[in-house]
Amino acid sequence: MGRARPSMQELIQRRRNAGFVGRRREVDAFRDNFGLPPEDARHRFVFHVHGHAGVGKTWLTRRLEQTARQEYGALTARVDETASSVPEAMAAISEQFARQGRELTSFDRRLATYRQRRHEAESVPAESERQGPSTGSMAAARAGLAGLGLVPGVGALAGAVDPVPLAEGTDRLRAALSSRFRDHKDVQLVLDPVETLSPLLVRELSEAAAAVPWLVLLFDTYERLGPLLDPWLRTLLTSERLGTFPANTVLVLAGQTRLDPGCWGDLADVVAELPLEPFTEAEARQLLTAKGITEEPVVREVLRLSGRLPVLVSTLAENPGTGGDVDDPSATAVDRFLKWERDPVRRSAALAGALPRRLNEDTFRAAVDDDGAGLFGWLRSLPFIGDRDGAARYHDVVRAPMLRLQRTTSPQRWGAAHTRLAETFAGWREVATGGLDPHDGWRLDTWSGPRLEEWYHLLCARPSAALPGALRDGIGACDAGTAVARRWATTLVEAGEDADSDAVRAWGRHLVEALADERRRGIEAMGLLLARAGLDAAARVAALVVRGWHRRSVEEFDGALGDFHRAIELDSGNVRAHFGRAVVHRATGEFTAAMDALDRVDALEPGSTWVQRERGETCRRAGRYEEALARLDPVIEADPADHVALGSRGQTKMALGRIQEALADLDRAIERHGDYTWALLRRARVRSTLGDTAGALEDLDRVEALEPGIPGALGERGDVHRFAGHYEEAIAVYDRALALDPGYAWALGSRAMANEALGRRAEALADLERAVALNPGYAWAVAQRERLLSSGDSPEGGRNDGPV
To answer: Which residue positions does the secretion signal occupy (predicted)?
Structure first.
């Protein structure tokens, strides 16, 4: 029988191999936690490592990950600030689990669909430009899609915001958006991926947790991740809304600041705090001894210059020199980082390499003189250079004094170097995207990435001169979505810090705060720019239009209309503003005003088929079905592949009772886009009406595979079962839909009919009362409630139905 425990020799060798010095108390606390079952009150589900930059948080985090994986058989994943959204954090977890042999297959498949659909949604302007106006299409794309994939909670709002009564339910907003946009087969996924993807991730994490002793999820640089991930992680830990989180999971959060008490204050009993201070002198000496540095004058100089910060102790220990020059009183930390590098070309290259925020060989060559162009490999070997997200990065504690030294030593050389880098990034952006318009470019990483670096270097070179342009350009960043807008705001913060510009730094911080609430998108940021940035007329129009569309997306209809009207006062020919008015009026049931606004769009963009499609959809939503057909028919004649117009016409024919024709249009729409979920849902309804229960369920199965757990799809499935006489099955499905969205009035009305069919009149009446309380304008539910209260007649059997 093999040894149950490792020998002393093995333990000593393991420690040596790890190369880890210090932090024994923190590592031991982490180890001890694995000896306590999750049911034990002493077990901690969260470890919070916090301390100043350079204190060794990332170093310790990696050690904790190594400990969990090697000693306790844990599956681990580590996320850092390169994840700028919750979906990106989830993707990082899945990718790292896959590398350890545990693929999260269903989640990965759905994530791939999300990325594809979001790309399709963001490509709408370019496609629309080929068939009509790019500005109108961009307005539609920005109305509720681009960037909203990162907004937790929008899905919960979506079920209640559309005023069209009767059958819209939580699917109403998705249906309306699908009819307006050219490629919106997966609107709910794009609109709210957190609500859609999280249950899949949690389910597969639970399956993985059943096969291994522990799961350990580590989140580094949490001072940046916290505002983004706090609500999501808290929900995972304290609520089953997104699924049942496995109890054998341990989280490690590592950042410079303490956890937000508003989010974590009541969870102190599950969080273990691990505050990190600089090394003790004994720990720093232990590291130096391990590096072979024992000469006392050298040790004392390293301790003095490093402040015992682990990253600096390690850096200085790589090449400590000799005792002959350690007592130079004029030495600074930056001098000491490079003091023992005698080659002036290498010294210069190391300083110049600190100028870009992220380094690869191309940016390094752009930053350094010709003599240093071949030194990138050498630079990567330096102890203060690390790898992050495929790029080399200086440690903050080292980079900051290097930048400060260059800025203060020669302001002219500093400005020239940053100007040269800005021009380099601008050239790369032009080459990569072919001069793409900024409104479109912000949605592409190949454009927005170089653009942000360009602004960073311009702001470092000439802060006051560059700031107005950077603020104006931020309007397009906010238009592209919260994640991009945050990167823009963070760029201002970092440029302000590195250039020591109070104005740039303050603007960046205010904008970061304004963008903190994802549900508000860029509304507050645009408000700041409009109030304080001194925008010219054209920029004011752009900011008003962007804020108007953002306000429309959160159902602030009056504010949205006000912004669009002000934009039109400044620029009467702005298509996006006029189209925004049309969309808001349509959402509020003011169909005549919506058509008037579309007339104005048509006058500005004559002959555009997309405008006719929008008119047709407006007529359909208004219940003017014959007029809708008259407008949609020419659109389809002009473009037989327009699946959105085909779907809209199919739904119109359904409303007119032309069932077979409706089925033909929906078939054509789905033939052109096989995963067009909006059309699949409508075809399921048509097939159910024709008595094709199997076909209807087949369509709904396809929807479920594409968008698991969508309440609207479950409501349709319940109706298929109900009209087939499968009342218990119908009720079970309605229950699932209502568990996902308790405010789903349409499902309550349908469940009431199924309950009444089973003789459960009290339950039926209770459901109808709840439906009417949720939506007092829900005429169908009001009528059914009055029927039950007054006459006791049998259920009428009609669909809980209306314009969709």
So the answer is: none
